[in-house]
Amino acid sequence: MTTESQNKRILEHLSLGRTITSLEALSLFGSLRLASRINDLKNKGHNVKSEMVETEYSRKKVARYSLNTQK
């Protein structure tokens, strides 16, 4: 899958009000570089926010991204 198609699918996912982490992006879209894809979306003007959350499986924290719909 190309970078642009990953960006499109990730944006569609976020536009539905869903969140995504790097592990979910790998599973859903085959994306190994979610932070880079999020940066691409931000550079195109999309208001993506992030929060650090603990994973279910360990106490490690990962970024969870969502689309900020507040204006």
Would you write up a description of this structure?
It is a single chain. With 71 residues, the protein is of the alpha+beta class. It has a single domain, classed as Arc Repressor Mutant, subunit A, CATH 1.10.10. Helix content is 44%, strand content 20%. α1 (3-15) packs across α3. The longest helix is centred in the first third of the chain and has 13 residues, at 3-15. The protein is globular, with a radius of gyration of 12 Å. The mean pLDDT is 92.
Instruction: Identify low-pLDDT runs.
Output: none
Structural class comes to: alpha+beta
| CATH fold node name | Arc Repressor Mutant, subunit A
How would you write the strand order of the largest sheet?
Answer: 1-2
Number of helices: 3
Which architecture would the CATH scheme give at its second level?
Answer: Orthogonal Bundle
Beta-strand content:
15-25%
How many structural domains?
1
Tell me the number of strands.
Answer: 2
Nearest-angstrom radius of gyration? 12 Å
- Distance between the first and last residues' Cα: 32 Å
Helix coverage percent of residues?
A: 40-55%
| Major sheet attributes | 2 strands, antiparallel
> What order do the helices and strands follow?
HHHEE
- Global shape: globular
Mean pLDDT metric? 92
**What is the CATH class name?**
Mainly Alpha
Strand and helix layout:
Elements: H1 3-15, H2 22-29, H3 34-43, E1 48-54, E2 61-67
Antiparallel strand pairs: 1-2
